[in-house]
Amino acid sequence: MSAPAATPRTVAIGSVELGAGRPLVFIGGPCVIESEAACLAAARRLREITGELGIPFVFKASYDKANRSSLAGFRGPGLEAGLAVLARVKSEIGVPVLSDIHEAGQAAPAAAVLDCLQIPAFLCRQTDLVVAAARTGRPVNLKKGEFMAPWDMGHLAEKAVRSGNDRIILTERGTSFGYNQLVTDMRAIPEMQRFGWPVVFDAGHSVQAPGGRGGSSGGNREMIPVLARAAVAAGADGIFCECHEDPDRGLSDGPNMLAFRALPALLRTLLALRAALGETAGVGGA
Fold this sequence. Notes:
This protein is α/β, with parallel strands linked by helices. The chain has helices spanning 36-53, 79-93, 107-111, 127-135, 153-161, 188-193, 224-233, 263-277, and strands at residues 10-13, 16-19, 25-29, 57-60, 97-100, 116-119, 140-143, 168-172, 175-176, 182-183, 199-202, 208-209, 218-219, 238-244, 258-259.
């Protein structure tokens, strides 16, 4: 299923460059904006951790979790209030910011604040959404749907390119494996890199058990480091992982978030793996 390999590209998210020949990038933050104070504190803590290790960092938090399992699930502050919080993170903490958009009409206001627009996995085939995000000119992170083959992601990226935007990132986040289960095929990383776009691995959502707790999703955060190490060994250009001061008290996706205290050791390991890969890092070991 492999296509002929395209020339590797780099994509800038604010001041952070992602792609072939660039350092491993970390994208992370709480799943959802729980409050302005908590979001600013999380961004500050993650900036400290990544700064000490010299890892380029992009902050992620959702202003609206529109795909909750249950109507009772916490969704966040919404578009206007959430973007105001992320604008404060960007200006006061001094890091690039990324968040999801769920409707085409959100693209323009989100692009006025965000350094990168993310297309959720469930919505990755929604043409109007991808086109609207691309037309803002901001980088677009296309998360691979759990139902998608990696070699089919090139068609989705092409929607953005034909809309005038070649600043594309592809993110692997697991594949449906029966009911309430995901499995990760690390071959997806080099397969998607063949399109030339940087490829990120979402270590948190890849351990998710969608709908596994009935009214909410479950997961196994103990497997986050295992899959993150495998992804870096497979050549991922960046690691995406939602983090929280106390994941068990998180208002969304707690079982799939990593505690801040566990992050430094994991990142040090990932840096060591990246260093061991040498020149093959970020190109799928090819």
